[in-house]
Amino acid sequence: MAENVEVSIPASARGCKLRCVNCGKEFEQAEQDFRCVNCGELLEVFYPLRETGNPRIAEGLQATWLERRKSFHALDQSGVWRFREMLPGMQDWKNAITLREGNTPIFELPHCAKNAGVKRLLAKHQGMNPTGSFKDTGMTTAISVAVEEKFRWVACASTGNTSASMAAYAAQAGLRSLVLIPEGKISWGKLSQALDYGALTCQLRTDFDGCLQLLRKVILRLPVYLLNSVNPFRLEGQKTAAFELLEQLGWSVPDHIVVPGGNLGNSSAIGKALLEMQELGLISRLPKVSVIQAMGANPLVRTIRENGGKSLVTMQPDTMATAIRIGNPASWRKALKVLQVTGGTVEEVSEAEIALAKAEIGSDGVGCEPASAVTLAGLKKMVARKFVAPDESVVLILTGHVLKDPEYTLKFHRGDLFTGTVYEGDVKMFDGHRREPLILDADPDAVVRALEQAEKADGR
Ligand code: F0G
To answer: Is the pTM of this model over 0.85?
Structure first.
């Protein structure tokens, strides 16, 4: 059996430093578990040499980022590396591993807006990344560090999307990847991606939190590079979604950004980006960032409700939105700070509310995986309690592609999503939203009749 290994990952060589989010201690380099050696909490990247509050620099950056959109250079074509002034640098830019991530679209959700009670609703679809989720934006920056530090193996615990993304970037970089996933609790789409991209995939008889705890022990014994969102280099890449969003909005700040919450890395990254943009003078005010969790996996909601955010309330998670089936979120302190600084809130939504919201997002021709749909379900509640006013501007962050979990979608439309579960009574809420496939004879009359019946039924 392998003995303990000591690995250090330098930050200072990349023009940045690391700081503990709890005790504030600063570091030039990270240990392999990316935790503070003083208090064990998470680290964040900061840039001591960055000049802030200079309008000429802010305008120059905006112009540079726009100019790069015309370039055919790989790093400029990446919607992450296009913002490289905001990221840890590379010792050699040739080491940057990119699958041309980022560059994700913003969609209008007109029917969802009506259903939620707001005049206009936008969705930034991070599921339009190369492996179908927002994870790619962080994977590109973090894997590139692994390449420069000459790791042979990278690893993550995952509810599915991180593993798909990591496996793809590792394959592109020529690295080996180790995936730990909870057995039976991830969608087939995500599992199949990890296999196709060549990861050593282990399904463990535990949940995500169990996988992550176990992986923390493994990385202390083998020189394996950890790619969960505790890796601060990953969150730096994920930050760029917010830069890109603001650029797409012409640097005009929306009133609200709504994010799903699982391990809470994404909300932390988006919040960090907004604060950096404000410091630089790229924006003059902050949007409220709100985090939505499934009722069965709501540790952040409970932490705020039960002790005002003083200490994390962990739980045994359960939700069909398997991507966010997490009861012990690593980045809870970072996310809490984002809520506090931006004035955002938390909301929890039921399984039926998630399923309905997902179908509504589908009805706008956009679609997403279940975990992403918590944003719309949460928005409805925030409007109902007047945290969001009808004329305020709102952007939902959709985190995963609709094809990530087709089994969920099919079950919903066939009417058996909740069969045999405690939610069985809630399916009435789905009336008028289910679109069951029809099985007909191969006869044009049958198809014409079906069309006529559909026309009569929906009265459009
Ligand atoms: N949405 C999707 C589609 C996800 O895959 C995840 C997390 C989240 C939201 C929550 O983001 O953890 O940053 O708060 N998926 C991780 C994974 C945990 O392993 O793929 P978070």
So the answer is: yes
